[in-house]
Design goal:
heterodimer, A: mainly alpha, 15 helices, globular, B: mainly alpha, 76% helix
């Protein structure tokens, strides 16, 4: 096991370095010079030149990347061009919100999908398999808008949007999160259900399940103790990928409900050509995604020894 | 799979309806979609079925015209994605070995990147316009197609008829295009519908975030976003185009799931 982890880590570090360098090169190369991006189209060449000198944008890319990485490893992602705030603290604030929202949504979706599909009767699971199509195809902005209209405007049961920190009261905090969590988890509920159901069906047909049933074990116990552990692997892989992707923020959901998470920060950065913010968020997304993939691999290897050998 | 046949009928019916609406939008729409009037944010009425937007334009007419934008982006992006994905996937699956391994690595990385973030970065890099949006979405979708095509080719290449073709001395190009390609048509057709569906989904999300086609294009995602501020006055400004996107995405998805 330790050997497996070490061999994965040996690949992981150079991979991260290569990928982050590529992203750095793409962003700083293709975007044109960050200086002209900040100053706009009609900036004088002199002004662009001065700014390039100031920030070191005309050094070779590898040197710029080295400087950026060194600073980033020391927790310094530079200053936002738009607000002159430190990017590190902006990201730290936003990340808390995104991580909380994502964890809630994924946990809820996974528990609901696995629980309902394992314990529900035939009618319920048939309904879920149709319902999953809706969950997967409804865009987050549509689901969010509908939920806001029904629950916040029409029924007035829940607040429309905005972020209320824990310190302002746990109940208020959670009430403001109900609709965003539902919105975000719909897609994952649909995907987890489909993946789990397909695997569940094929495991259900295997001999050991029939033996368990023949021994007189109750359906619920067969479902939970015999079938579930054998059909949950693909869901775990997918949870890993999903969490990695959510590091980039649940962009649309955050915008719909005005939650100041990573996704909204990123959209604001893109709209305002805020180079350090785009770069920092892009890098964090990329690294976060690679870390969660690594963790998912390790969890899989822990559960299923075959993975370790191949 | 009895339960699936209604999905197929529903999917095809909706897609046909949406295509017809897109084609005949100029004749179906009661008003010019870009004509402003002094009736700003009027509630739904006999003349303006779902009201007017903040510039006094008829929301229903814009809704009908929006079908064009969505379909063009969705279908064109899929064609671009297929154009890259099919050859890459076929090549990787057929040659195997180290080249295949390298391609699979690239595909895996592309697939696990969050689509919306990548789309935002690329649109920021190359700017927003119709051709650019199509290219961005095509670039995002090709790895999915390549992965599926590769999987199919890996199996097919071991079959006797391929071996026979090799023994007769067919060139690789000929084997791929004449012997293997006809056998992956069905899978590719199903993927075509699914990728169209996800492309429309991503395009609508992008334009909801303000990175879609620049105004005054009648674009469903953008309409949801601009109607969002007037949710209290007239929720249909947001909900109607939102429902249109959802139905379009869903119908293509259902077709893709039931092709076999």
């Amino acid at each position: 096991m330790i050997r497996f982890i070490l061999s994965r880590l040996a690949f992981f570090v150079p991979n991260v370095l290569i990928m982050t360098f590529l992203l750095f090169a793409v962003l700083s190369g293709w975007l044109g010079s960050p200086a002209s991006m900040m100053l706009g189209l009609d900036a004088s060449p002199q002004a662009i030149h001065d700014l390039n000198r100031l920030y070191g944008f005309d050094d070779p890319i590898i040197q710029q990347y080295g400087r950026w990485l060194w600073a980033a490893l020391h927790g310094d992602f530079g200053r936002s061009f738009a607000t002159q705030q430190g990017v590190t603290s902006m990201i730290a604030d936003a990340l808390q919100i995104t991580v909380e929202l994502s964890l809630w949504a994924i946990t809820l979706a996974a528990l609901a999908a696995i629980g309902l599909n394992s314990l529900g009767g035939r009618r319920l699971t048939n309904f879920i398999s149709t319902f999953s199509v809706v969950c997967i195809t409804i865009p987050n902005f549509m689901l969010g808008a509908t939920l806001i209209f029904v629950f916040a405007i029409y029924l007035r049961w829940l607040p429309t949007s905005a972020w209320v920190p824990w310190s302002d009261g746990i109940v208020d905090h959670l009430l403001h999160l109900v609709l965003p969590i539902i919105t975000l988890s719909a897609f994952y509920f649909g995907s987890f259900s489909m993946i789990y159901r397909a695997e569940y069906r094929s495991v259900m047909n295997q001999l050991f399940v029939r033996v368990a049933k023949a021994k007189g074990i109750s359906d619920t116990r067969v479902s939970l103790q015999h079938v579930l552990p054998n059909s949950v692997l693909p869901v775990i892989t997918f949870i890993g990928i999903s969490l990695g992707q959510l590091m980039g923020g649940a962009v649309v959901t955050e915008v719909v409900f005005s939650l100041p998470g990573i996704g909204r920060l990123f959209v604001a950065g893109i709209r305002g050509n805020d180079y350090p913010v785009i770069l920092a968020v892009g890098m964090i997304v990329l690294t976060g995604m690679m870390i969660t993939n690594l963790l998912a691999d390790i969890v899989l290897a822990r559960i299923n020894p075959q993975v370790r050998l191949s | 799979m009895r339960s699936r046949s209604w999905q197929r009928y529903l999917g095809w019916t909706l897609v046909c309806a949406i295509v017809l609406i897109a084609i005949f939008a100029p004749w179906l729409a009661p008003f010019d979609p870009n004509m402003s009037s002094s009736k700003v944010l009027a509630p739904p009425s006999a003349a303006n079925w779902i009201g007017t937007d903040h510039l006094g334009r008829d929301a229903f007419s814009r809704l009908l015209w929006g079908a064009r934008v969505s379909l063009v982006i969705g279908l064109a992006a899929t064609v671009v994605g297929m154009g890259i994905g099919i050859p890459v996937g076929m090549f990787a699956g057929y040659v195997r070995g180290k080249i295949d391994l390298a391609i699979v690595q690239v595909i895996d990385i592309f697939i696990s990147l969050p689509a919306i973030i990548m789309a935002l970065i690329i649109t920021a890099v190359i700017g927003v316009s119709l051709p650019n949006l199509i290219i961005v979405l095509g670039l995002l979708k090709w790895p999915i197609i390549a992965r599926i095509v590769r999987g199919q080719v890996l199996v097919l290449r071991e079959q006797a008829f391929v071996e026979a073709a090799q023994a007769v001395g067919c060139t690789t190009t000929r084997i791929l295009s004449r012997h293997i390609a006809p056998n992956i048509v069905r899978v590719v057709a199903a993927q075509f519908a699914i990728v169209t569906s996800t492309s429309i989904f991503t395009a609508a999300s992008l334009s909801f975030l303000g990175l879609g086609l620049p105004p005054p294009a009648a674009d469903w995602g953008g309409m949801v976003q601009s109607g969002f501020d007037f949710m209290f006055l007239n929720p249909w400004l947001s909900l109607a185009p939102g429902a249109a996107v959802t139905l379009t995405v869903m119908s293509f998805y259902m077709i893709g799931q039931t092709v076999d």
